[in-house]
Amino acid sequence: MRVAFVSSETVFHHDTETNQRLQTVLELLRDAGHEIHVYCTQFWDGEHSTFEREDITYHGVSVGPDARASFLVRLPFVLAASNPDIIHASADRPKQVLAASLGATLARTPAVADWYGHGGLPTDRWRQLAARSVDRNFVPSELVATWVRKLGVTERAVDTFPNPIDIDRIRSVTPGERADVLYARRLDDGANLESLLLALAEHRTRDWRATVIGDGPERAAYEQLARDLRIDDRVTFAGTLSLDDRIAAYRGAHVFAQTAERCVFPTEMLRALAAGCVGVVEYHANSSAHELVEGWDRGFRTTSEDELGDTILDAGELEFRDIDDHFATYDRDDVRDRYLTTYRALRESAGIF
Q1: 220 and 75: one domain?
Q2: According to the model, what pLDDT value does residue 349 have?
Q3: Which InterPro entries does this entry report, sorted A to Z (predicted)?
Q4: Do 247 and 267 belong together in one domain?
């Protein structure tokens, strides 16, 4: 299948969560032998309009990210000339979805919009038009699906595709040192690590050890809070770790705690749960993390800081595991097959075979 991805910016412009998601999807399809083309603004040196990187063709629709008007004007005609089987556009910028939709009309092929919603989704007119202009809207979680439906589309126009994980890779990594509680996230103003530290401090007389993975502007403040709470000797701030090192930590941990206030999809938490951790989630309105543990016998949801500490103790009473097959449906191969099934169904609905 020839798939055209549309995003004025890629991970090679800015390494954001939204761009990482799109890169993950196109690499999934590439690895299955599909022909992948990315229509973006140019991020490479030289005057050539295309750039090959790891079996993916990047097309410079305009010369740079500041040339947005040029990108939007040229995009429909460039897409129409490329004759793709499907057009998959990032909805990070709604106007590029509208341009991609016009290109799909000219090319007589379906178009989908991928909404990640990091930071929320305003219900402005451009986003409403974008959501209604495509054949299907893709989202990572029910949280984002709710936001997209508020743009005026029906439930049938929205499909949920979680961020995938590599189950085989998780199995192949040797478990790391044992930890009772683990937290992993960028330590910024939405991390809400203080909830976990305060909960742990309530049980400082018990024998436990916790690990915090991640770095960011709030790290020093959190380290100071651990000292103020007199638990700094039992909380290890591990900083930024490679993926394999994070997986090793997850396989060695008993409980994974998710307290972040904002999270459209908890990819690191999913890896930890697949690596055997018991999941404890502090509910927040702008976080989808609770969706992973609903209806699961090794998952707990709390609604307040007061509950968190006791819930972590309850979670610690469950059996220790270093792998959990419950999350096998989130594997890369399964998620990729779901994308392909949806692409083909959209083509069939449009009378294209």
Answers
A1: no
A2: 86
A3: Glyco_trans_1, Glyco_trans_4-like_N, Glycosyltransferase_grp1
A4: yes
